[in-house]
Amino acid sequence: MVTHLPEEKILFSCDFLGSHIATSRLYAGEDPTVITAAKRYYAEIMMPFRSSVQGNLKKIRPLAFDLIAPSHGPIYDHVESILAAYEEWVSDRLANVVVIPYISMHGSTELMVDYLTAALAERGVVVEKFELSTTDIGKLAMALVDAATIVIGTPTVHVGPHPSVFNATHLANALRPKLKYAGIIGSYGWGTKAVEQLAGLIPNLKVEVLGTVMCKGLPKAGDFAALDALADAIRDKHAAL
């Protein structure tokens, strides 16, 4: 619920437009770290409700206010900065960015991720990698706000994806980012159903799967060629964004 106090030109936005930051300052000013914290809040809390946020932004735009006082974070005294940021985050525009959450047990998957990262960079695509044993999961959520593509990297554990990859994929599905494309890469020893299991975890992501590359043991020439083909497909799709 949003409350407008026209006499004082204040918008009390409750959870809407909040930020994940603790500060002794009452006002945000023009501090960019507040907008970064607000993006994290949007990614972790509000992103699943993107269409509702779009509608609410349209409702508050005609109102007259000089301050926005959310329930979380400081008061915005430069209101256009947070409104413009939110309008960008909830728009249908996508960045030329591939997000790669991954983990590797014996090095095979990491070799594939590093190769794909270099191949995409050569093709002019920005890559954000998240090694899941150490990553801040909130930063992964933030990266998903704007990215056009996610490529999930996993070794095989008991025929399926690594538990950390399972968790990250479940999170991405719950947050419902505006991704358009996906890929799955990884490795196995005896056999794998990681691709099928991961595909079943993302019903909320309305993505086109551009390719899957699963190698047995260490990646070989054919696997690297398949990664190049995946990089080509991603580049071509991103060129049309």
Spell out the blueprint of helices and strands.
Layout: E1 3-5, E2 10-14, H1 32-46, H2 50-60, E3 67-70, H3 79-90, E4 95-102, H4 108-122, E5 126-131, H5 137-144, E6 147-157, E7 160-161, H6 163-175, E8 181-188, H7 194-200, E9 208-216, H8 221-239
Parallel strand pairs: 2-3, 4-5, 4-6, 6-8, 8-9
Antiparallel strand pairs: 1-2, 6-7
Helix pairs in contact: 1-3, 1-5, 2-3, 4-8
Structural account:
- With about 240 residues, this protein is an alpha/beta fold.
- It has 2 domains: about 5-90, no CATH class; about 95-240, 3-Layer(aba) Sandwich (Rossmann fold).
- The protein has 8 helices and 9 strands.
- The strands form 2 sheets. Strands 4, 5, 6, 7, 8 and 9 form a 6-stranded mixed β-sheet that branches. Strands 1-2-3 form a 3-stranded mixed β-sheet, with no helix packed on it.
- α1 (about 30-45) crosses α3 (about 80-90).
- The protein starts with a strand and ends with a helix.
Summary of the model, kept short:
The chain contains 8 helices and 9 strands. With 241 residues, the protein is α/β, with parallel strands linked by helices. The strands form 2 sheets. Strands 4, 5, 6, 7, 8 and 9 form a 6-stranded mixed beta sheet that branches.
> Assembly state here?
single chain
Question: What is the share of helical residues?
Answer: 40-55%
Q: DSSP helix count?
A: 8
Structural class given helices, strands, pairing?
alpha/beta
Q: Provide the CATH superfamily of the largest domain.
A: Flavodoxin domain
CA radius of gyration: 20 Å
The average pLDDT is: 96
**Model regions low in confidence, pLDDT < 50 over at least 5 residues:** none
Strand elements, count: 9
Which geometry do the CA atoms define? elongated
What is the terminal separation in angstroms?
Answer: 35 Å
Strand content: 15-25%
CATH architecture name of the largest domain: 3-Layer(aba) Sandwich
What's the level 1 CATH class of the largest domain?
Alpha Beta
